[in-house]
Design brief:
By secondary structure, the chain is an alpha/beta fold. The chain has a single domain, classed as Alpha/Beta hydrolase fold, catalytic domain (Rossmann fold, 3-Layer(aba) Sandwich). It contains twelve helices and eight strands. Strands 1-2-4-3-5-6-7-8 form an eight-stranded mixed β-sheet, sandwiched between helices. A hairpin with a 2-residue loop joins strand 1 and strand 2.
Length: about 260
Amino acid sequence: MRFVKANGLVIHYLAEGPEALPPLVFINPLGCDLRVWSDVASILKPDFRVVAYDKRGHGLSESGPDRTEMADYAADLAGLLDVLGIGRAAIVGMSIGGVIAQELARQRPELVAALVLCATAAKIGTDESWDERIAAVERGGVESIAGAVLERWFTPEYRSQRAAEFAGVRAMLTRTPKQGYLAACGALKRADLRPYAGAIEAPTLCLVGDQDGSTPVALVRQTTGLIKGSRFEIIEGAGHLSNVEKPAAVARLIAEHVTRTAA
């Protein structure tokens, strides 16, 4: 386990591979910690310096105040990269991780060599949908919404055929600290990066599972259209967490994009 102080908080992170390799940084979804990227990272780490971390309020990282903005999450990541001496990296973000990645590209574009935006958008959800989720978690904790969330995250095939793994992901979700989960929901509710998406200069790849119930194909396609020169790919047979269901396909597309843009 590795910990650093970044942007005023203790952040838990993982860094694997020689520093001479191109850095590849993973940002996890809402209700997940860095382990959600394990399968993809294991495929890519022979060719990249892989960095994953627990965003504030998740996993082993400290929580910030109850009200947190997307800019705070991006500043945490910028601080982590500064501490690790990574001046420029390919950033891979899923769901809220993709919103954080977009915000980092807005705040600190010099840190972003390439973007891979997985199952995300410049604006996710509505005030009403986030208010409903926040109220449900305040009443009954993350456990009370887990069933509905996991149905959006995974295909029926995954839920029925990979029961042990599915149970493990459920445990990761339900053990997310309530305060950290609620703070992230609030940040997502207030975040709208649509006015800034057109200014992203980093080469961008947008990925989405064909059965994503959280950020559907049409929503991700809309964000792709806002980012000049971005590419769009659909992962067949995957829900929201395509990195868990189809890690080989996701890893291949990430490697191709990052290698092509670095050439």
